[in-house]
Amino acid sequence: RGTALQLLFKMSRSCSKVGDPRPGQPYKGGNFCAFLPDNQEGLKTAKLLKKAFEHGLTFQIKSYNGEETVTWGFIPHKTSWDGGKARNGYPDALYLHEVSTVL
User: Residue limits of the Deltex C-terminal domain (predicted)?
Assistant: First the structure.
């Protein structure tokens, strides 16, 4: 299986902005983790994911039962290092190509 790069995101509690479901409302943050293979293609993808994060494209705010919360956005991330595609993990031979296309 090889070694992995682990991407950690800590999203603080804050207030939503224009374009979010309920602008000006507080939302819950959270801790998020994603995995990439530790190889040249994984490193390249990590750099693209970093740019997406810096441009505010990685996460979104969704409303659940009247409460706003941070969730993953539309860019697919592998949140498990194993379990295959069905569990959002590896092995998934097409993932790096698919995420690069999205990015």
Answer: 5-101
